[in-house]
Amino acid sequence: MVLPPTLKTLGELKRSGYKSRSxxxxxxxxxxxxxQSKQKxxxxxxxxxxTVIPQVINxxxxxxxxxxxxxxxxxxxxxxxxxxxxxxEWMPAIEGTSLRExxxxxxxxxxxxxxxxxxxxxxxxxxxxxxxxxxxxxxxxANMADIIGDIDPIRASRDKLDLSDERVIHFGIxxxxxxxxxxxxxxxxxxxxxxxxxxxxLEEKDIQIRGFPLxxxxxxxxxxxxNPEDYTNRGRIITPLKDRIASQILTHxxxxxxxxxxxxxxxxxxxxxxxxxxxxxxKEVIAEIAVQGRRSEHVDQSSGVSARLTIAxxxxxxxxxxxxxxxxxxxxxxxxxxxLYALVPSISGKLELVYEGQEAGADVxxxxxxxxxxxxxxxxxxxxxxxxxxxxxxVTDWFNSGLQLELLDSDTEATxxxxxxxxxxxxxxxxxxxxxxxxxxxxxxxxxxxDGLHHYSMLSKEGLGATMVYGDMFSNMMHSEGF
Length: 483
What we know:
Blueprint: H1 10-15, H2 23-36, H3 52-61, E1 66-69, H4 76-81, E2 90-94, H5 109-118, E3 124-128, E4 133-137, H6 144-147, E5 149-151, H7 153-158, E6 169-171, E7 180-185, H8 192-197, H9 199-203, E8 207-209, E9 212-214, E10 220-226, H10 228-232, H11 239-244, E11 247-250, H12 257-267, H13 280-293, H14 308-326, H15 337-341, H16 344-348, H17 355-360, H18 362-381, H19 393-400, E12 405-408, H20 413-421, H21 426-433, H22 439-455, E13 459-462, E14 467-472, H23 473-480
Parallel strand pairs: 1-10, 1-11, 4-7, 7-10
Antiparallel strand pairs: 2-3, 5-6, 8-9, 12-14, 13-14
Helix pairs in contact: 12-13, 12-14, 13-14, 13-18, 18-22, 21-22
C-alpha cells in the first residue's frame, strides 16, 4: 500500500486504513506483486536469472534472513541492496523517536507513554524507502556499542538520569535499523563476541545492553555477505549464528562469456572525448582474460578473479584507443592488438598470486593471461594451427622467406593496414572464417591470427605491447643460439 506522505497525525493515519505489518511481510507482498506483474527483478544483475535470483526470491517469500556466500566481485552487496525496491515507497513513523517506531506499535517505554498521552494527536513523519537500508562493513575493531548499543554517561549526566534508567541507552546501528534491512558485509571478520550479540536479535528479538534486558520487538531483516576464503583464513561465522540465518545462497562468476561482456559493458565508464567503436573480438578477449585467470595455477583460486578486472581492463582499452586519436596517430579510434596488451596495469593489481606467481611477478602473470586469452579466442575462430597447418602455409611461408612484420602502436591506420595486407594468405583466411567483418575488425582479426600462430609456436615474436615483431620461428631460434 503506497500512501502519500501528507498525513500528519496518528488519527489521520488510522482513518486512512493503514495497517501495520513486519518488514518481512512487506517484502513478501511487494515481491509477490512484482512477480505477478512480470516486472524485471534486480535490474543490473547479470547471469543470476536461473541460479541465484530464484533462491533469493524463495528466501524472501519464506521471510528468511539471508547469507550470500561467494568470492570477491560477484555482486553480493549489489544484489542485497536490490531488495530495497520491494519495500513500500514511504513508511510512517512516530516523530522524534530514534528507532523510527511504528505509530500503531511503539516499542520503547518512553514512546509508549508519549503515545498514550497524545492519543490521535501523536505526530508522525514519513520515511522514504532509501533510508531503510543500513549496512556495516565488518571489521575487527567493530564493537558491541557500534552494533547493538551502550550506556551513554554523557546523556545521563546532562539529563540527570540514573544509570539504571533505560533512557540512558544509546542504541547501535542494528536497533536503529528497526523496520528496515540491515546488511553486514564480510561477516566472518566480525569478532565472535559481536556475533554472539546478534543471536537473540535473530531468534528471540530481544537485546541486552550492559545488563539491561530489553524485550523489544525489533523488526529487522538481517542480511549477510561472506567470502568462503574468510571461513578458513581470517575468521568464520560462528555455528550458532549460521544456524539462525535461514537461507544461505551461493553466488558465482559469469557462466559464459556473453554474461561477462554484458557486465563490463554495463559497469565500465565508457565516456571518452572521442567516438569509440569497440570490436566484438576485443570484448571477447577481455572476457576470456578473466576465464583464464580463474584457471591459472599462478592465481590463488580461493580468492577468485573479480569481475572488476574486466571492467578496469575495458576502461584501459578505451583509453589506449582514445590516446592514439588525441596524439594524431588515428583519425578515429580503432581496436588494435596493442590495446589488449596495454591491459596489464588493470590486471596485475587484481590478482591474488600463489608463490609461483609471486616469483614470476604480477605483470608477467598478467601478460601471460592476456596471451592465453588471445590463444583461446584464436582457437575458437580459426583452424587448429597444429592439426590443420596447411591452412596457414601461405602465411608461414611468407615469414619463412626471411620477411618480418613490425607492428607499432605509433603506426598510422594506413601504415598498419599496408603492413598487415602484405602478409600473403593472411587476409584470405580471416575472410574465410570470419564473414561480414568491417575493415577495422578485419585488421584486428589479422593481428589476433598472427599472435595465435605465435602461441602455437609457428611464428616468433619479439616485444610486447607498443612494439611487436613477428618472424620465422626457425630463423629466430638459430639467431638466439648464435648461428
